[in-house]
Fold this protein.
Amino acid sequence: MRFIFALLSLIPLQAMASADCPVYPKSEWAAEETLKKALTDEGYTIKKFKVDGNCYEMYGRNKEGKKVEIYFDTKTLAIIKAEGLKE
C-alpha cells in the first residue's frame, strides 16, 4: 500500500488539476451551444462537453483527427488550457 502512495506522489500535481478559470455569475456565462457550434464549425468533433468548476471542458478531436482536451472561460470562451492541440 505504501508503494502505491509513493508512486502517486510522483505524478505531477498539474496533471491531476483542472484548469483555473475565472469565476463569473452564471447569468454572465456564454451559452454552451455557442461554443459547441463554433468548435464544430472549425472542424472539431466533440466527444464530451461538460462544465468543470468554472470552465467549459471539451474532449474530442481536432480537424486533423488528433485527440484534444480544452478548457474554456465560461464568459469569454477564451482557451484557458489545452492539451493535444499541437500534436
